[in-house]
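re: that chain from earlier
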Amino acid sequence: MWLIAINPTSGHGRGAVFGERVISFFASRNLQYQVFSAPSAKELRRVIESHLNNQSCEGIISVGGDGLAHLILQIAVPRNLPFAIVPAGTGNDIVRSLGFSLTEIERYLEQVVSSAPRSIDLGNVDSEWFAAILSTGFDSVVNERANSLTWPRGPQRYNVAIALELPKFKPLEYHITTDTETFSTEAMLIAIGNGRSYGGGMLVCPHAQINDGLFDVMILEPVSKFEFLKVFPKVFSGSHITHPAVRTFRTKKISLHADAIAYADGERIGPAPISAECVSNAALTWTL
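^ sequence. v structure.
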C-alpha cells in the first residue's frame, strides 16, 4: 500500500492536477494506494498518522509544495518510511537538491515503484526535521510579514513584504557555536543548508550536498541597503558567496542565540535560540 498525500491548492491548483497524474500512474499499474487530503496541515498529519498506526505502507508520496514535503518528513522519518516528493508548489526547493524537475514526474514515479530508495541527510532543528534550508534574519522577517498579508497572493506577496521591511531592517546580533568555534557577529541573513536553495531557486548555499554529513552555512554580514539590493540578485546564480561581506563554512552542528525568528523549508520554526544538527542517512527517498 502506498500513501499519496495531496495538497490540491498548492502551486495555484497545480497540486490537484499533479495529484491526478500520480493517481493515474498508480491505478494504471494496479498498485495499491490510498489518497489523503485535508483542509489543514494539522488535520492531514492526524489522519495519516492514525492510518499508519494501524496499517503498514511501502512509502509516502507528497504531491504539493515544500510545506507539504516538510510535513511528510515529520511523519515518515521517525517511522523509517521512504518518501517521494512530486513538486507541485511555487518553490519546490527540496526536489532541486534531489535532482529532478516538473517535466520528469512519470519517469520519477517509475523509479519510485521499481527501485530501492537511497538514504539522504536531513537537518534537525530542535527536534523538527528539514531537508533544504534553515534560515534567520532578513528573509525570516520577510516571511513573517508576508504571512500576515492578505493581498497580493502568491510570490508577489513576498515582493511586497521585501519592499515593506527592507527600509527599516537592521542587522541582528548573533552568538554562534559550531563544531569548532564560538563567536559573535552582526548579520543580515544566516542560511544553514542541507540543500542548496530556497525561495524558488535562490542558491543561497550553492555547494551544499544532501549526502556529505555537513551543513553549508552562509552568513551575510552588514551591508548598506543599496549594497544589499546589488548582492541579492546574485543569490539566483550562487555567485553572492564571493562578496566580501559573505562568510561561508561547513559544520555538523550549530546553535544560534539572537533576538530573531527562524524558518526551515519555508515553515516557521520559531524564535531563537535554536540548535541544529545535520543527521547523516536520516531519511530514505528516491532521486533521478
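The domain at 2-115 is CATH 3.40.50.10330 (Rossmann fold).
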